[in-house]
Write a structure and sequence with these properties.
Layout: H1 2-7, H2 15-32, H3 44-60, H4 65-87, H5 91-119, H6 141-159, H7 166-182, H8 187-206, H9 210-230, H10 241-260, H11 270-282, H12 303-306, E1 330-334, E2 342-348, E3 356-360, E4 366-375, E5 380-387, E6 393-398, E7 408-416, E8 423-430, E9 434-445, E10 468-469, H13 480-483, H14 488-505
Antiparallel strand pairs: 1-2, 2-9, 3-8, 3-10, 4-7, 4-9, 5-6, 5-8
Helix pairs in contact: 3-4, 3-14, 5-6, 5-7, 6-7, 6-8, 7-9, 8-9, 10-11, 10-14
Length: 506
């Protein structure tokens, strides 16, 4: 469980990171009590060779030692675990039980996170990724869902050891793990879970154990019928709009890097290279060329000017498209019912189709965000991403979703810019396909968002505004750089190269 957790260490602290630190201390305690430390029998030496190559490449490529240290720790744990199992093979049962328990805990917390916005219990939001998806103890629902799916076969195998009550335990395990995967809304995790269920049924068929085989078959049919009627099917479309501008580009870049540098690019180096090359692959976030983007000529807001600044958003009333290069699904319209007399209208066919802007900020200052929103009943909200100097997302937050058909204020107050932040990306987001309207967009330095007033509206010439168009199609996976924080194994493959790949295969 500790090894799986540590692989998914994200940029900001997750509950799993706390478990990771506790696991390090516990490991030292176990070794101090005399447990066997290492096993260097074949193919374990390949792991040490891969570490040596990665260390050299990391040094040459100026990679981040943080990621290399995590890799070293995982290697040490793997060697110690192999030695412990060789010393007493019966310990594998304990490990299987621990993995199954970790999967149950993750599935339950994912379910709690997915229900947070419906039961209105603020505490449960720590397990939520957004209005729809749960992330459990992790920082990404795709990671949490994959972990649950991968541990299901272990839970199913242990359930079948309970004699007469095995069907009851198998049904319980399948229901809990399936709920955890489904409520993460991760397509990859759902595929992995399906493979796990099919694999379990194949083993049961070979063993001619027909009762649990039939029970699993019936549960699959029932789950398919219920899921088709109750779940948002658009979440499981094979290719989402943000895949084309995020994940697919990340994979293209990864293949290129692997061919160019087969020994790897060094631990923690993927983000920096992705930022440099993503423009070559995609032009920029809006799909155009770098020359067409609004280039900031003003420096980030300084502490001296922050206290007196008003609206940092240019054309927050959406009086025309000035300072807002908009995608095809969005347009500015006249709306006499709004506070500004204007609005931005989105007609979306997918989730997270998000026009956005990037605004320079001063680290350590407090900012507040607000907008007026109305929809056709589909949830819409503001999402903010704090970005560092390399345009990598440090952390993010979102306002409460709005589903009202009349204008409703939503926003985020008293948001502290992280020490590494150099810009904040403000996204006009949607959680379901439909029609959403935004107006009176405000970003101010200070703990409170002021009500909309005419003096908050100003329009800058394209070349002089400090506001840069973002036009992001996905609030979660906007570029190859930020995508890599979710595609952990992709990053490990590219950074460790062919030696790392061969080691994982061995």
């Amino acid at each position: 469980m500790l090894g799986c957790v540590s692989l998914f260490w994200q940029w900001d602290l997750a509950a799993a990171d706390v478990l990771f630190g506790a696991g390090i201390l516990l490991s030292f305690a176990v070794w101090a009590l005399g447990a066997p430390g290492f096993d260097l029998s074949w193919p374990q030496p390949l792991l040490l060779l891969a570490l040596l190559i990665t260390a050299v490449v990391t040094t040459i490529e100026n990679g981040q030692t943080r990621f290399f240290e995590i890799t070293v720790y995982l290697a040490v744990v793997a060697l110690a675990l192999a030695a412990a199992l060789r010393h007493d093979p019966r310990r594998i049962r304990t490990i299987e039980a621990a993995m199954a328990l970790a999967g149950i805990v993750t599935a339950v917390t994912v379910g709690l996170g997915a229900s947070a916005s419906h039961v209105n219990v603020p505490f449960l939001r720590v397990f939520a990724y957004d209005y729809l998806r749960g992330e459990g103890l992790f920082k990404d629902p795709n990671v949490a869902g994959a972990f649950v799916a991968c541990t299901y076969p272990l839970a199913a195998a242990r359930s079948l050891r309970f004699g007469r009550s095995r069907l009851l335990w198998l049904g319980f395990a399948t229901t809990v793990f399936a709920a955890g995967v489904v409520l993460s809304y991760s397509r990859w995790a759902l595929l992995v879970l399906a493979l796990g269920v099919v694999g379990t049924m194949v083993v049961l068929a070979i063993a001619r154990d027909w009762k649990p085989f039939a029970a699993l078959g019936v549960m699959c049919v029932v789950a398919g019928i219920v899921g088709h009627q109750t779940l948002p099917s658009y979440r499981y479309q094979p290719v989402q709009s943000y895949d084309e501008t995020g994940r697919l580009l990340a994979w293209i870049l990864s293949v290129e890097l692997l061919l160019e540098r087969p020994l790897g690019i060094g631990a923690g180096a993927f983000e920096g290279i992705a930022v440099e090359r993503s423009g070559q692959l995609a032009g920029n976030d809006t799909g155009g060329t770098p020359e067409n983007r609004a280039v900031p000529s003003e420096p980030p807001t300084s502490p001296a000017t922050a206290a007196t600044s008003r609206n940092l958003v240019s054309n927050g009333a959406f009086d025309g498209a000035t300072n807002w290069p908009l995608p095809a699904f969005a347009a500015t319209i006249a709306d006499p019912t709004s506070a500004t007399g204007h609005a931005l209208r989105k007609v979306t066919t997918d989730i997270y189709q998000d026009p956005g802007i990037s605004i320079p900020v001063e680290p350590g200052l407090v900012y507040s965000f607000g907008a007026a929103v109305k929809t056709d009943g589909t949830p819409a909200l503001l999402i903010i991403h704090w970005r560092d100097a390399n345009d990598v997302t440090i952390s993010q937050a979102n306002s409460e979703p709005v589903t009202s058909t009349s204008w409703t204020d939503t926003g985020l107050s008293d948001q502290l810019a992280p020490p590494e932040a150099r810009a904040v990306v403000v996204l006009l987001s949607n959680l379901e396909p439909g029609t959403q309207y935004f107006t009176a967009l405000r970003v101010v330095a200070g703990p409170v968002v002021p009500a909309w007033a005419s003096d908050l509206q100003h329009v800058e010439r394209t070349g002089q505004t400090a506001q840069t168009a973002a036009g992001l199609s996905d609030a979660r996976c906007h570029s190859t750089a930020s995508c890599s924080t979710h595609n952990t194994f992709l990053r490990v493959l590219v950074e460790t190269g062919v030696p790392g790949f061969l080691t994982m295969c061995a």
